[in-house]
Design goal:
This protein is of the alpha+beta class. The chain has 2 domains: 172 residues, Thermophilic metalloprotease (M29) (Thermophilic metalloprotease-like, 3-Layer(aba) Sandwich), CATH 3.40.1830.10; 190 residues, no CATH class. Strands 5, 6, 11, 12, 13, 14, 18, 19 and 20 form a 9-stranded antiparallel sheet that branches. A 5-stranded antiparallel sheet has the order 7-10-15-16-17, covered by helices on one side. α1 crosses α2 and α8 packs across α9. The chain is globular, with a radius of gyration of 20 Å. It comes from Alkalibacillus silvisoli. Keywords: Aminopeptidase, Hydrolase, Metal-binding, Metalloprotease, Protease. Its cofactor is Co(2+); Mg(2+); Zn(2+).
Length: 413
């Protein structure tokens, strides 16, 4: 299908009103690839219709990104100009909302030295550390959505028929984010209520730990005192609600980064900044990755784990039913926004401070005292399957099913 103007307008309206939920008089920054320009034009219209002011678009071009890695010395790739940081910081410091269009080419940096990519990413993450605090602490509204791009669509459907791949991906995206429904906004409100029910149930339980078991996972995860489960919509510091990820099928919290033990194997590939990592296994002891192996992208995985001290520890545990719409598509999207919502997943690196009571008011040292990991990175990887069981362990040692054979075992879901 070729998306119609009506469909694009419907998707843009959903993104602006239910995703980032820009307010009257609020500035909006849209970060987007140039291939998304048609959709971005609709987004800008909808943003102004909602009363936004000072709508800015920061364009990226993957062809130029690849050329930089092909020709520039590492010293240039590691140099993040002050103006680039200041642009983002000034926007969020003044209360602006941020919308990211995430549609990466999974093979963009294939063949580039993994160490070069890792050092460039580390420099960029370090430069943007203060900006990212506005995101991970929900100080502002922010959201991430995707639209098809040629290379991404061809990778998913493994075809040289570019036009058909893009059309097929549009169809999948419209179904998964509920744009194909008569009232997408109401559909999202209903969906959020389901996730809120699960979130509230788990917050009331305050399990001491979780136990994962399947052919891919044999893991025990300690949970911090006063941990907070989140999922569906979020609320910014101003009190404005928004949906950070569209799609989203998860409820998530932070583990006690010191209390993770066991082994995990991935169930879907990880696209890490233009390089694929697949068939990998991680072994945790007292929270730290002490052993790892990978069938593809081993060097990339090594450099990811070496990003900083916190990169070898977990910052997020997320629960997703195997019957989620993304999973039922039977596609591997090579895009974390989509693949993470097809499967229970874990994240290496930084936790969201909001996943512990009062965490948004704590500095890094105070967070670590509570067992909340800090890092320059946050990388989700998928471990869910139709065979996965997840049990909540109470402080009395009782085990209660949360996920059974890939599906929710919680009443009322």
């Amino acid at each position: 299908m070729v998306p119609t103007k009506e469909q694009l307008t419907k998707y843009a309206n959903l993104t602006i009103k239910m995703g980032v939920n820009v307010q009257k008089g609020q500035a909006l920054l849209i970060n987007a690839p140039i291939e998304a320009r048609q959709f971005v034009h609709h987004l800008v219209d909808e943003a102004y219709e909602a009363g936004a002011e000072n709508v800015q678009v920061n364009w990226t071009d993957e062809v130029l990104t690849r050329k930089r890695y092909d020709y520039e010395p590492l010293s240039v790739l590691e140099n993040v100009p002050d103006w680039a940081v200041e642009r983002q910081m000034t926007h969020v410091e003044n209360g602006g909302a941020v919308l990211n269009i995430h549609a990466p080419n999974p093979d963009l940096l294939e063949g580039i030295d993994a160490e070069v990519v890792a050092k460039a990413n580390k420099a960029r993450s370090a430069a943007m550390k203060d900006y990212k605090k506005y995101i991970i602490n929900d100080k502002i509204q922010w959201s991430i959505v995707s639209v098809p791009t040629d290379k991404w669509a061809k990778k998913i459907f493994d075809t040289d028929n570019e036009q058909k791949a893009v059309e097929d991906l549009w169809k999948q995206i419209f179904q998964i984010v509920r744009v194909d429904q008569d009232d997408p906004i109401q559909a999202w409100k209903d969906h959020n209520e389901t996730l809120f029910h699960i979130r509230d149930y788990l917050n009331d339980k305050q399990y001491d730990s979780l136990e994962y078991s399947s052919d891919f996972v044999d893991l025990t995860v300690k949970l911090p005192e006063n941990h907070v489960w989140a999922g569906g919509g979020a609320v910014a510091e101003t009190g404005t609600s928004f949906n950070p990820n569209m799609p989203t099928e998860e409820v998530f919290t932070a583990p006690d980064y010191r209390g993770v033990n066991g082994t995990v194997k991935n169930t879907k590939p990880l696209n890490y900044n233009g390089n694929l990592i697949d068939d990998f296994k991680l072994t945790f002891k007292d929270g730290e990755v002490v052993e790892f192996e990978a069938g593809q992208g081993g060097e990339t995985l090594k450099h990811l784990l070496d990003s900083d001290e916190g990169a070898k520890y977990l910052g997020e545990i997320a629960l997703v039913p195997h019957s989620s719409p993304i999973s039922q598509s039977n596609l591997v999207f090579f895009n974390t926004l989509y693949d993470e919502n097809a499967s229970c997943h874990l994240a290496l690196g930084s936790a969201y401070p909001t996943n512990v009571e009062g965490g948004e008011k704590l500095d890094d040292n105070q967070l670590k005292e509570k067992g909340i990991n800090t890092s320059l990175i946050h990388e989700d990887f998928m471990v869910g399957s139709a065979e996965l069981n997840v049990y909540g362990v109470t402080k009395d040692g009782e085990k209660e099913p949360i996920i059974k054979e890939g599906e929710w075992a919680i009443k009322g879901v």
